[in-house]
Amino acid sequence: MALIEVAGLTKSYGATQAVRGVDFEVEEGEIFGILGPNGAGKTTAVECVAGIRTPDAGRVRVLGLDPRTERAELRQVLGVQLQESRLPERLRVGEALDLFASFYRDPADPGRLLHDFHLESKRRTAVKALSGGQQQRLSIALALVGNPKVAILDELTTGLDPRARRDTWQVVEQVRDRGVTVVLVTHFMEEAERLCDRIALIDQGRIAALDTPAALISDVSGGQRLRFRSADAVDRSALSALDEVADVMVEGRTVTVTGRGDLAGAVEAELARQGVSTDGVRTETTTLEDAYLSLTGRSLGGHAETEGADA
Ligand code: ADP
């Protein structure tokens, strides 16, 4: 059953077309990822789902509710953890949970949430005195205090060190295990790959592909990637013509080949036929980053941070 239905969603800010006709459905019980570099339109899309922004066009339903006209009802079933949720700095952790719980008809037990999110010892600590990881755990706890059916978590591990990031991932899995359907917005490929049942790859306001991580990786990049270096000239078109080969990239002396089946065997035989000697053909693991790159020609990675900022 689809808990969230989005069809033809479009939203511009002045001349910036942030979301350009996006369709997806989120099924009950899944962790659904929205993955793309900064500026791709992820936050805008989920803010429309949460009723925080009004779309220019398109249809959005969350458990059958229209986020624009049924916001009060929606708030009872949808928990939202947005980027940099601002809390008054002097508010204590326990007070924040009690305050948020008071907004809901049937809230979760704040004490229980403190326990589950390892914040019991921080009950009387001011929010501003928490570490980054603790603040993220608190913001997820706050998103869950209304006992929502669906939780939207936006860039929840940005700014965390690798250890705190992994701890947060465990918490997200626990959230799903409580029966909460999760929409996870991220620009970290590793996070999406590790946590999500299905992922929408979003590029410049459009969905480039939507599938399970495994299917995205094998369908799009061909499933396997080989790399070798050679001082000899390689007949690239003969390599490309092999049945097993999907794509050949040459950068200086480094050759990267993606494809399927017995790719290494086929490539090594062809290189021997060409009389090309290499430093050894290495098989590398393909990732969502490969899939994203091959679909969009763009990288998910690091420097996208600044690209998004001035878009
Ligand atoms: P993401 O969440 O993928 O980083 P956003 O939805 O935040 O993407 O942004 C998509 C595009 O819309 C970007 O070009 C961004 O600069 C622009 N944008 C986002 N919010 C606003 C806003 N409030 N006013 C104007 N432009 C915005």
Automatic annotation (TrEMBL):
By its UniProt entry, which InterPro entries does this protein fall under? AAA+_ATPase, ABC_transporter-like_ATP-bd, ABC_transporter-like_CS, ABC_transporter_ATP-binding, P-loop_NTPase
The main place the protein resides is: membrane
Q: Which Gene3D superfamilies match?
A: P-loop containing nucleotide triphosphate hydrolases
Enzyme Commission no: 7.6.2.2
Domain (ABC transporter): residue spans on this chain: 4-229
Source organism superkingdom? Bacteria
Keyword Transmembrane attached:
no
What keywords are annotated for this sequence in UniProt? Antibiotic resistance, ATP-binding, Cell membrane, Membrane, Nucleotide-binding, Translocase, Transport
Instruction: Answer whether the UniProt record assigns the keyword DNA-binding to this protein.
Output: no
Topology with respect to the bilayer: Peripheral membrane protein
Q: What Gene Ontology terms describe what this protein does at the molecular function level?
A: ABC-type xenobiotic transporter activity; ATP binding; ATP hydrolysis activity
Enzyme category, top tier: translocase
Question: What is an annotated GO biological process for this record, any one?
Answer: response to antibiotic
Q: Which GO terms describe its cellular component?
A: plasma membrane
Q: Using the record, list the residue span of the signal peptide; answer none if the entry has no such feature.
A: none
Q: Which CDD domains match?
A: ABC_DR_subfamily_A (cd03230)
Tell me the Pfam families matching this sequence.
Answer: ABC_tran
State its location(s): Cell membrane
Tell me its family: Belongs to the ABC transporter superfamily. Drug exporter-1 (DrugE1) (TC 3.A.1.105) family.
From the Swiss-Prot or TrEMBL record, give the protein name.
ABC-type xenobiotic transporter
Q: Which organism is it from?
A: Streptomyces arboris
Which taxonomic lineage does the organism of this UniProt entry have? Answer: Bacteria, Bacillati, Actinomycetota, Actinomycetes, Kitasatosporales
